[in-house]
Amino acid sequence: MLETGSNIGIVTTVPNFFSRGAAIAARKKVRIIFVGGFLGAGKTTLLWSAARILVARGKRVGLITNDQAPDLVDTGLLARQGLSVGEVAGSCFCCNFRGLIRAAGRLRNETRADVLLAEPVGSCTDLSGAILQPLKERFREEFIPTPLSVLADPERTSRVLGGKRLGMHRSTAYIIRKQFEEADRILINKVDLLRKAERGNLVKRISAAFPDTPVRTISSLTGEGVADWLDDVLSSDEAGSRIADIDYDTYAEGEAALGWLNAEISLDAKKCCVPDWRLLGLFLMQRIQDACRERKTPVGHVKMLLATGDKTCAVNLTCSKGKIDLRGEVDESKAKARLVVNARVEMPPEDLEHLLRENLDMLLKGRVKIDYRRLQRFRPGRPVPTHRYREIVIS
Known about the structure:
Layout: E1 2-4, H1 20-27, E2 30-37, H2 43-56, E3 61-67, H3 73-79, E4 84-89, H4 97-110, E5 115-118, H5 127-138, E6 143-145, E7 149-152, H6 154-162, H7 170-181, E8 185-188, H8 196-209, E9 215-217, H9 226-234, H10 248-256, E10 259-269, H11 277-294, E11 299-308, E12 311-317, E13 325-328, E14 336-345, H12 349-364, E15 368-378, E16 387-389
Parallel strand pairs: 2-5, 2-6, 2-7, 3-4, 3-5, 7-8, 8-9
Antiparallel strand pairs: 1-16, 10-14, 10-15, 11-12, 11-14, 12-13
Helix pairs in contact: 7-10, 11-12
């Protein structure tokens, strides 16, 4: 049985009859790998690691990022690595299926990609029913979806499986469980941070909770297990082998528990007082983390991208008590910088904006001109998928 939302639409690829190369590309079927998982699970790092492996194998790769609002840190990071990136912003893949098809079609035809890697919104579930099944039925001549892989963050997953002292809204935990329920593959990520016994114990717990789903361990940061996972999903057509039973009231409540903020900020310092830009990013993140810890506020993720010229550093936080991750370098001689902030935190979005503005002002003390070029803060609305299949489509 198929349910459709009001924004249903079919995108038809029109071949360019004046370009033989474009027509050949348009007929080419492309494998598309969806990597799901909750906020902070390491999806973007995995996409980057997987893309490097595929490029080294001689494959042309395209990436598709997704968020409820534009100005994604992930898009900026991946694009600066020289990768072809399409962004679907303003709603999730499920609710903007047409946008997903447009982005995938552009990458498929313009870059002649062999493989597409797609990262849905971290708070999204029902990917099998809303994305994989319609892909298999309606676009089988263009795309070959691979097994849906869902990343499991060790700490957050342990709390969800334990069922007590969640440290997050119960409806948010519900979303995480549903992500695992619909997965074709569950990938325990960040195993470089676990001891051997901890790895084995978590594998047993996940396997006991979801006995019909293969479980792998990987580290998207070090690359451990990533090549083997790619070999697995690229050689299998078992995409969307199960559809989870989703209570959309609970799902909507879980997404709305988070305040969302996306901002693009221009920073302009006088040449005589150029700050240590990298240290600024670290201190700003530290202040946001301290405030969340004091308020006992769960953090989905906070990501920052700080760019000066053609150099970039990224600052990431996935837990109010966790370690701040700082990577990359910037040109400290530059007087101008661009700061992109993506924050998903369990607090009112207006409080999240105040937290950002207050601490940025406090750190820069009026010595640097701050221009909020774009800023959006909100709670996600109720998800309304373009398509929602109740039955598995046989490829």
